[in-house]
Amino acid sequence: MNKAAVKFNTQDQPEFFRELRSRVNAHFRDNNISKYANLNMKLKTVFMIALYFTPFVLMVTGTVTGTWSVLGLWVLMGIGMSGIGLSIMHDANHGAYSKNKHVNNFLGYLVNFLGAYHQNWKIQHNVLHHSYTNVDGHDEDIAKEGIMRFSPNQEHRSYFKFQVIYAPFLYGLMTLYWLVSKDFEQVVRYKKKDLLAGQGLTFRKAMLEVSFNKAWYVVLFLVLPLIVVSLPWWQIVLGFLAMHFICGLFLALIFQPAHVINETNFYEPDEFGSVENNWAIHQLLTTANFAGNSRIFSWFVGGLNYQIEHHLFPNICHIHYRQLSKIVKATAEEYNIPYHQHRTFFSAVRSHFSHLYKLGTNTYDMKLTAA
Which end of the chain is more exposed for a tag (fewer CB within 10 A), N or C? Predict the structure, then answer.
């Protein structure tokens, strides 16, 4: 497959995004509000950071002791990890938290406290996923060759019929994979694809930064508790693994139902590297919202249940997505463009696992062939 940059069809209703952008800009102008974080967002930032670091301090200072109590602290840290990932560093690494790039860089670096590497995250998420959503060979979020099948364009293997069963376990290992192996693999891969330079990195610098960040992370969050917490070593390791499993599972179950579901489309560029749609329309065809009426849920998951609005306007803080969704949906309807959404989080998750089942048993392909 040609790995050159994907070319979108600029002649496919370009007036849609022009009009949508105009209406969104008018929303902020007419209401005299900033596109960046407001007081609500700043309070959330304090809460999520405290939810992650406070249990850790209570544990290593011996303020909280006992097997079950300490395990409970690890669980809270897992929830805090996902909260930071969804609600803070995500906006910051998109440059959407603040108009001050130093604030964005500072808060974006928090992903390193989750075991990942901020520069790789920007390449995979901002550059590849947002630019080429659900495009095989380009969007790394759906590239799990030999492990899972997310797109009907990907090769089917007999054991994929079990992927609907083993998927939750693999999702729970996601942040551990970041920590142990993924970032190193990505640096090598991004060097070959000439993507490191876009982040101002050389291969050597990227490898040194990844190694340094992994080292201090392991010392701080694993070695230190092993030394100072008066519990058997295996209980500390179990708690550390539980924290990562909770975070990984939660992150996956928020992002997967936004793109990898029955309703969304998947694409493979033609021989010239082109796809059929305008970029903005492509985002609507490959993305879905869910649980739009649940304010508490939306607050915790960083507004990423409004994934359509996030993909169209990633440079706007998620705290505004609820209001923007009304504008986006109305405009999409005017231009006869699909606006995928599930009423609840659980219906979106159900659609995701239904999609995995169809791809795993090859019934998805059979329906396409029959059509």
Answer: C
